[in-house]
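README: folding subset

This subset contains proteins for which both the sequence and a predicted structure token string are available. Records are stored as plain text. Below is the entry for L-2,4-diaminobutyrate decarboxylase (512 residues), shown exactly as it appears on disk.
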Amino acid sequence: MTVPTYPVETTVAPLAPSAARAHLLHDGSVEQYRQTIADGVDRVARRVATVDRPGTGITPAELSPLVDRVDLDRPLGDARAALDELEDVYLRDAVWFHHPRYLAHLNCPVAIPALLGEAVLTAVNSSLDTWDQSAGATLIERRLIDWTAERIGLGPAADGVFTSGGSQSNLQALLLAREEACAEAIGPAARAELLPRLRVLTSAAGHFSVQKSAKLLGLAPDAVIAVPTDARRRIRPAAVREEIARCRQAGLVVMAVVGTAGTTDFGSIDPLIDLAGICAAADVWLHVDAAYGCGLLVSPTRRHLLDGIERANSVTVDFHKSFFQPVSSSALLVRDRRALRHATYHADYLNPARMVEQRIPNQVDKSLQTTRRFDALKLWLTLRVMGPDALGSLFDEVVDRAADAWQLVSEDPRFEVVTRSELSTVVFRYLPTGPGRELADAANLHAREALAASGLAVVAGTRVDGRHFLKFTLLNPATTVDDVGQVLDLIASHAGRYVHDHVAADLTCPVG
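--- output ---
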């Protein structure tokens, strides 16, 4: 890699207060604001128009010196100069999710109306905690929460709040579940006795944020019980029923069952109807993590895959996954708005209790955050410009493409494929033949790293039953079957060369 050279830096004199104020957005700086933002948009647009691969494959060792040499105490004094510098420390080596051979994680290309929303919300800078900091923004977020709850089918008592992402939504859902389970534990002593006995049941294929949330909530180290899955990597309802009974017999309290509508690795959707019935019979909180699968809420053809989600006590949705929104845009929905009281604290300077009596709306009473971005605006503008059916058809496209990709991999003798996803992932691995078979794990790890280093494509990796596998996550409708085929050929080339070289080395290595 060629390290760029910069002109010798000169010290910029500290700005006088009047000059510094010129960099703030106000009625006298609107032209500067317009030009500066336009310059930034133009830089990104040129990059998007010309990138021919999802990344450059740059390493931390290569990029870190460029970032470390930037002296943040010596300003450049000019936005265009700063953008020039940004080309070298960020834009040149950014990972581009819009590229059709980005096939790694749950990152999507973003809808242009959402980018418009991002530009508006950052400039106005509303804070979604109280009415006197947000006004109409509060009502827009509430309308979107109502719309999402209607799509889920949670009923007229539903409510919710936007969050930073699925992990925060899951954390808050389990907080509410914990507090509901502790509602009858009167007094500190009773609560202290109950907390170590609380348990959470979740799929063995579920998201790690469940375990992380349990730790943050002060539950026991063994509070999360991973329930076995079936051949399709879905939680086994019978095992959930048995685990609830076993916990009760042992004097433990199941505070929540977490069903997953779209596991990160396999895109599997748990049997939500069965889970809802089990939880209702056992009087256990049911949380559905639909961070990935929430796109089915607007699917013209696959909404039925979420049947049963309407009976959940709480639901996580990530619009920044399958609704093609920029990070961050997520929400937690609850069936009964009264449960959100467990996140409510009153501060005299912010949300005094009298505001409730005056029926002044605010969102801070529902949120784990205080200061919070108006992220709902991005989804609002996307729906107003494109509509939900258009978003759903885009999500249908990537699910269809994943089915095609699974078929392609399953018919290729070079690879072994795991269960077919209900959403848009494909988990597979290169499988050497003959004496190189024992090198499968190392070959797949090598292939992923070599592919990333080339910048020609990016794929993910995971472990299945203790073995290393690769993973395609398709969230880009522009990705074609031909793109998938080309990436498979690259993987096979890297992995095959690794196996060949190591087998040859073993054969030529003298014994003893």
